[in-house]
Specification:
Elements: E1 8-10, H1 26-36, E2 44-50, E3 65-72, E4 75-80, E5 87-93, H2 101-111, E6 116-122, H3 128-137, E7 142-145, H4 150-160, E8 162-163, H5 165-170, E9 175-178, E10 184-187, H6 190-202, E11 210-214, H7 218-228, E12 234-239, H8 242-255, E13 261-265, H9 269-272, E14 278-281, E15 305-308, H10 317-324, E16 328-330, H11 333-348, H12 354-369
Parallel strand pairs: 5-6, 5-7, 8-10, 11-12, 11-14, 12-13, 14-15, 15-16
Antiparallel strand pairs: 1-6, 2-3, 3-4, 7-9, 9-10
Bound molecules: NADP nicotinamide-adenine-dinucleotide phosphate.
């Protein structure tokens, strides 16, 4: 049996169907399962394409029905989902336990009465391909991909499926579509989601703007490349990691020859910031209560649009400093919402119910903030 590629596979907040009775050989089932899930015996949901009756469990009889079973204290309980099985989607990443995506996506399915569930697939580094294959084999119809697997997802789709233009430009994939005919599409909705949020919140696009991005990691690089393709007037990348900065510069010069791009150390951002129209903070600085703003108030001015990709806390010291200087500000909730909405549309061909998704996110964040 192949190694189990997940540290955990969960459907948080989703009530499972009523049990229809344990199979005659449940003990055998639990032994098989326990071996595959060595260290997480509690609250792990395993999704198997499987056996179309419960009398004899036989690993070779696949693909008639889907069963969900929960493993608690090494005893398995089997739920038959059978004919009305929900369609399964989820997030592949590591770690993923604190992700708000299930709350947002399950609210969207609920609002449109789509019989689908969105879960969390925690796949440690190096396990992306095994995880994606396992989900695909087991009937999942799509997945989001997050750290540290976005590049691996790009390589996987490049080899086995079709990439959208956006994924090809960003060289990373955050949305997988497992089509019913067995084909595979990889998209990246991060930058599009960011631009949707910019449009919704500020009624602007990046086109013609002088843009400053702080950070050159996954999100910073994606937004830099996306900016280059959205005809910004100029682009500056300020980051502490010289190597990552330089690699991004080289990708940008290759992708958009002739675009005025410049990289600089993070500590010099304060000098160029006042001349920029749009400033995007893409580092995790501000997530911890003791974090200070990466830029002082003097770096901002009225007439600027300032976005911090962090959404928890909702107002970072960075956004506070920008607001004090008179800039218009937004946190990362809009990007989270809109990248999710675009994934949702890719999977279902339905317009995402933004209000229900936003409310679910706000409720979850409020709950998280409670002591
Ligand atoms: N709202 C959304 O939908 C959304 C989407 C994606 C990401 N995000 C947020 O954006 C942030 C970055 O995510 P990511 O995926 O880009 O992470 P990442 O790939 O790990 O990149 C993080 C970047 O921040 C820099 N950084 C980290 N700590 C720093 C510090 N103390 N001082 C200065 N720079 C620092 C890193 O520099 P080094 O290379 O030197 O480490 C790197 O450039 C996270 O807070 C994430 O939650 C939000």
């Amino acid at each position: 049996m192949a190694d189990w590629p997940f540290q955990a596979l969960k459907f948080p907040g989703v009530s499972l169907p009523e049990p229809t009775g344990a199979p005659a050989n449940a003990a055998f089932f639990s032994v098989v399962t326990a071996r595959r899930l060595p260290s997480h015996p509690v609250d792990v949901y395993n999704v198997e394409a499987g056996f179309h009756h419960t009398g004899a469990i036989n690993n070779k009889r696949l693909l008639e029905n889907v069963f969900l079973f929960s493993l608690k204290e090494k005893s398995a309980t089997l739920w038959t989902v059978s004919a009305s099985s929900p369609i399964l989607y989820g997030l592949i990443g590591h770690p993923v336990a604190h992700s708000l995506s299930p709350v947002m996506m399950n609210a969207a399915f609920h609002a449109l009465a789509i019989d689908a569930r969105y879960g969390l697939a925690d796949a440690p580094p190096g396990q992306f391909v095994a995880a994606a294959e396992a989900l695909r084999r087991n009937g999942w119809r799509g997945a989001n991909v997050t750290l540290p697997h976005k590049r691996a997802a790009f390589r996987y789709v490049h080899a086995h499926g079709e990439l959208t233009d956006e994924a090809r430009i960003l060289q990373t994939v955050n949305t997988l579509v497992f089509h019913a005919d067995g084909t595979l599409t990889g998209d990246n909705t991060d930058a599009q989601g960011f631009c949707d949020a910019l449009r919704e919140t500020f009624r602007i696009s990046l086109c013609g703007k002088r843009v400053l991005i702080l950070g050159s990691g996954g999100a910073g690089s994606a937004l830099a490349l996306a900016s280059a393709f959205r005809r910004v007037e100029s682009l500056q990348i300020a980051a502490r990691n010289t190597g990552a900065r330089r690699r991004l510069m080289s990708a940008l010069r290759h992708a958009a020859p002739g675009l005025p791009v410049e990289d600089l150390p993070l500590r010099q951002a304060v000098h160029v910031a006042p001349a920029c129209d749009v400033i995007i903070q893409t580092t995790p600085v501000g997530m911890k209560s003791e974090d200070a703003s990466l830029l002082p108030e003097s770096a901002f001015r009225t007439g600027q649009w300032v976005v911090d990709l962090i959404y928890s806390p909702p107002r970072t010291p960075f956004l506070e400093a920008a607001a004090r200087a008179g800039a218009r500000t937004a946190n990362g909730l809009g990007m989270l919402l809109h990248q999710g909405a675009r994934s949702f549309h890719r999977w279902t061909s339905r317009k995402a119910p933004l209000d229900a998704m936003r409310q679910a996110l706000l409720d979850a964040l409020k709950k998280k903030a409670l002591p």
